Give the backbone structure.
Amino acid sequence: MFTRKVPIWQAIILLVAALITPPSPSYADTLTQVVAQKHQVDIALVLAVDVSSSIDSSERRFQREAYAAALQDTRVAQMALGGRSGSVAIAYMEWSGRSYQRVHVPMRIMSSQKELASFARAILAIEDDPGDPMYFQATAVGDALLAAEVAMSELRLSARDYVIDISGDGVWNDGSAVQSARAHVLAQGLTVNGLPIELTATPQHRQDLTTVERVSRFYADCVIGGPGSFHLVARGFQDIRETLIMKLMLEMAELPAEQKTRMAAAWNNGPQIATAQIIPAMVLELSPTVSAPEAQPNCESTGPMVFVP
C-alpha cells in the first residue's frame, strides 16, 4: 500500500473550502437560506452494501467496521452536520440475490455526532449467521437499487439531495436488469453513486477474474446516474474505509453537481505515490491506482454480465 499526495488540489480545494470557509453574508445568501428551510435534512442517503457469495464472513465484518468508522470520522461528521439544516438522514441495507435485500438500520434522522455514533453502533451490532442463505446468493444489483429506493421512501421529510450509495465487488448476474432499475430510481429524483471494490488478490473462491477486475467500469457505465453522480474506487477491501471517508464527504458537500463528478474522477485517476491531504493536518492512506480496462460492459445482457470490446 502506498501513501500518496494526490496532486488534484484544484479539485480537492473546493471540498476543503466547503468545510472551513464560512459563507459571506449577503442578500442573496439570506434568500437562499429562506428557501433552504423547506429542506429539513441536507442529504438523504441509503448505504447499500454488497454481501453476496463473493464476500466471505471476515469481509462482511470488515465492511461493517469500515462504514461504522467512516460515519464516526470527525471530517465526515463535520460535513454531515455542517449544512444549512444541520441534519442528515441515513439508512443502511445489505443485499445479494434477487430476493435478498435487508434494511438493517431504517432511515434515521441525525443532527449530532452522538447520533452518528449510535448509527455506527447499530451497524456493528448486525448479527452475522454464516448459514444465512443471504450470503450464498448471486449479485442482483438491479434489485438492490429498487430496494434502496423503497428504503428511501420511508423518509417523510424533504432533502436537498437524495442519494443511493451502492457498493460491490462484482457485476450483475441475477435479477432485475440494471439499466431498467437505474432508470426507475433516477425517475424518482434519486442520484446513484457507486463504491466498486477492485480486488488485487485472488482468493480461491473467486474464479471469474475478468469480471472482478472490471467492476469499476461496470459501476461507471451501468450503475451510477443522476446529477453529480460519481463512483470512487476502493483498491481491495483494506481500502474501503479510506475511500468511504472521501466518498461520504463528497456526497454531503453542498457543491455543484459537475464539481463533484470532476473531483471524483480526479481522485480515481490520481498518481500512485504521494500523500492525500484532504483537510490540513489530516492524511489518508490509499492503495495504488490501477488502470481502467479497455473493454466496455454490456449492461443489457440478459444472462451473466458479458464484457465486449
The longest helix spans residues 57-72. The mean pLDDT is 78. The two ends are 31 Å apart (CA to CA).
